[in-house]
Amino acid sequence: MDEDRLARIALTWLFEPGTRAVFRLVRQVGAVGALRRLLAGKVPDQRLRATVESRLAAGDPWQVALTAAEQTERLGARLVTPADPEWPTRLLSLDKLSLPGADRRVDQETAPPLCFWVRGAWSLGEALQRSVAVVGSRAATPYGLHVATEIAFGLAERGWAVVSGGAFGIDAAAHRGALNAGGLTVAVLACGVDRPYPMGNTALFDRIADVGLLVSEWPPGAEPLRPRFLIRNRVIAAATAGTLVVEAAARSGATQTLRRAIAMERPSMVVPGPVTSAMSVGAHELLREYPEARLVTGVPHILEEVGRIGADLAPPVRGPDRPQDALDDESALILESVPRRGPLGPDVLAARTGLDLRTALRKLSLLEQLGLVLRRDGGYTLAPAATRPGRAPSGQPVR
Fold first, then answer.
1. What is the pLDDT averaged over residues 281-285?
2. Which of 31, 93, 152, 368 has the lowest tally of Cβ within 10 angstroms?
């Protein structure tokens, strides 16, 4: 690896990804220059100097970077930096990401990544260009798992990559749905690509590495520390065309991912759940809190949000067409008055509806042509397969 790549590895080892002061220093003097200044203590930020001093007790950053580069090669992985053609350009949005009321460090340190470790043959930028993040609760319900699988399958069938975090629950269901459709899926990890977490999803990660992509900001061997999942979430939100929350409890990390997408003005979507389900409390609160968040119930709604403007429109929801749907008011009134049993004459029907006899006869003739009424014993009765407007075949009101 060249010096710039080694310096980026070293900086990632010294500081957690997303540290704004480090990103700005790299943008100002380059990765190599930034690392040399930090090691020499020639930066005004006391917190940065303290972090470097503490980390130096654990090893030499340049040597750590060389070791990580060797591990990367042995894994068959690769390091991707902003200098590479496959770098995802959407990540630049993180440079301006500002979260309202951010009082925690993880909500403040949301700068773009310095580099990625990648396992898989796909170009990272190409894979993420047409992608949707599907995230949600680890302790998912059967409802949530079913919805996530179906949506991911449908997106993959239509040529969209499905991006998630590889966790149990909704994440794993989304990855599997895309794989089952023969599509592309990307797992963005909070640890090294050589030790995906959770271990229970090892077979899933191996399959993703074979036909999709495993991606991480941390070098091989990095542990899945709790704060890293929250750091990772900003990448999922920034790298994709839109973010979908399928199921989320009140304190779910998935709600944090959507809040980042909303702050970057990306399409942000939520699948509604049962109001009695604790696993949908967080999802419903997102819909209440953010007018920008759109309620979606399937792939057509999602594609309308992330697809081409004016082209990928979801079809309007309506029931099946019926002959009586096109009836005028007078014909519908006659149909409502025709009995199912025992024919009534046109004069009686005219009296019931308040129509003159000539109009009643004309409308009855039309209803007969449509197969909605039958002429019998000098009168008219409702055809067996017909239903009155607003009523089900059983005779019960349509609800």
1. 97
2. 368
Residues near 180 by beta carbon (within 8 Å), at least 6 away in sequence: 149, 153
- At 263, the pLDDT band (50, 70, 90 cuts) reads very high
How many C-alpha atoms does 202 have within 13 Å on its Cβ side?
4
* pTM exceeds 0.70: yes
- Residue whose structure tokens are 């005779």: 395
CB 120, CB 185: distance < 8 Å: no
C-alpha of 193 from chain center: 23
Cα separation, 149 vs 164, in Å, equals 12
146 contact partners, CB below 8 Å, separation of at least 6: none
* Residue 247 token pair: 């199921």
Closest to 81 (Cα-Cα) out of 166, 37, 17, 164: 17
Q: At what angle do helices 226-239 and 253-263 cross, to 10 degrees?
A: 40
DSSP bridge partners of 134: 244
DSSP-H helix ranges across the chain: 3-14, 20-40, 46-56, 61-75, 105-108, 124-129, 142-157, 170-180, 202-211, 226-239, 253-263, 281-289, 299-306, 329-337, 346-353, 357-369
With b for 16 or more beta-carbon neighbours within 10 A and e for fewer, the 237-251 pattern comes to bbbbbbbbbbbbbee
pLDDT of residue 367: 92
Grouping H, G, I as helix, E, B as strand and the rest as coil, residue 2 is coil
CA-closest candidate to residue 292, choices 269, 325, 318: 269
Interacting residues of 233 by C-beta distance below 8 A, sequence separation 6+: 135, 165, 253, 256, 257, 260
Rounded distance between C-alpha atoms, residue 110 and residue 125, angstroms: 20
The two three-digit tokens of residue 60, written as one number: 């030499």
Interval 295-313: pLDDT, tens: 999 999 999 999 864 455 5
Structure tokens at 226: 């709790």
**What own/partner pairs with CB < 8 Å and gap ≥ 24 does 201-208 have?**
201/166, 201/167, 201/168, 201/172, 204/166, 204/172, 204/175, 204/176, 205/166, 207/179, 208/120, 208/166, 208/175, 208/179
Tokens of 318: 């309506």
Residues 3-54: pLDDT tens digits? Answer: 999 999 999 999 999 999 999 999 999 999 999 999 999 999 999 999 999 9
CB–CB of 183/162 below 8 Å?
yes
